[in-house]
Amino acid sequence: MGTVLEVTNLTKKYEGLLAVNKVNFKVEERRIHSLIGPNGAGKTTTLSMINGTVEPTLGTVKFFGQDITGMPAYKIAQIGIGRTFQNIKQFGSLTVRENLMVGAMYKHNKGGVLRMLLRVSETDRLEKEMREKADEVLQYIGMYELRDEYAGNLAYGRQKLLELGRAMIGEPKLILLDEPAAGLNPSERVEFVQILQKVYDSGIDLFLIEHNMDVVMNISHDITVLNFGQKIAEGSPSEIQSNPEVIKAYLGDRYTTINKE
């Protein structure tokens, strides 16, 4: 098995604020890797530097050995990295299917929007392909019956699934998930984890930020822990649960007590 993602000395400074400080980790093939830590630890900033929405101050990001540091987000999407966002970014006035079709444009529209508009036959072909792909993804995540519903009318849990669907439609090799289970009730979290496991089993590797420890500990193979922008621990779920520094900084003594009962 090879290395999907390699982050080396990744650093981000904002006018004197050191948000992420020389962070190193690897995401290996056929692994689910989680990034955890307290609020303000630098998790989302790290994710954003990986997918190109934030430019690193220092350090490198490699995807299957290719240096993608500072590459625009749309190009990173095209080479095989999908992403979901903590704050849902959907077009509420478009249907569920149309939202996915917009997401598919990153993958299929390599010539630009103007070229599509000027070449009607190509536009028709691409629209047909994107519609078919959108329906395929909706079937996969159990939302096909909602394909003509406006995204803004969906329940919150369905909106989270739609966000995942938009990340999937670009046929990624790796999906970055920012708080995918945030705001979901326990039964919704169980359903979401089952779908994530299904996505992983299909051959897509996953890298997620998540505060719900039931999700993290049940789905992860490897966990990296940040605190104040620095990596303080890395290991398997069992190793992280018993790490004194992680317990002190993030999990808390109560978490340890619960897991001993």
Give structural attributes:
261 residues, alpha/beta, 6-stranded mixed beta sheet, 4-stranded antiparallel beta sheet, 11 helices, globular
How would the blueprint of this fold be written?
Elements (H helix, E strand, L loop, with lengths): L2 E12 L2 E12 L3 E5 L6 H9 L6 E6 L2 E2 L5 H7 L1 E3 L12 H13 L4 H6 L1 H21 L15 H13 L5 E5 L7 H16 L3 E5 L3 H7 L2 E6 L2 E6 L1 H5 L2 H8 L1 H8 L1
Parallel strand pairs: 3-8, 3-9, 6-7, 7-8
Antiparallel strand pairs: 1-2, 1-4, 4-5, 9-10
Helix pairs in contact: 3-5, 3-6
Q: What is shown here, in short?
A:
The chain is of the alpha/beta class and 261 residues long. The protein is built from eleven helices and ten strands. Strand 1 and strand 2 form a beta hairpin.
**Helical residues, percent:** 40-55%
What separation lies between the terminal Cα atoms? 37 Å
Q: What is the percentage of strand-forming residues?
A: 15-25%
- Count of distinct strands: 10
Largest sheet entry: 6 strands, mixed
Low-confidence stretches: none
Structural class: alpha/beta
What oligomeric state do the depicted chains represent? single chain
| Rg calculated over all Cα atoms | 19 Å
- Give the SSE string: EEEHEEHEHHHHEHEHEEHHH
Widest beta sheet: strand line-up: 6-7-8-3-9-10
Number of helices: 11
Provide mean pLDDT, rounded: 89
Morphology call: globular
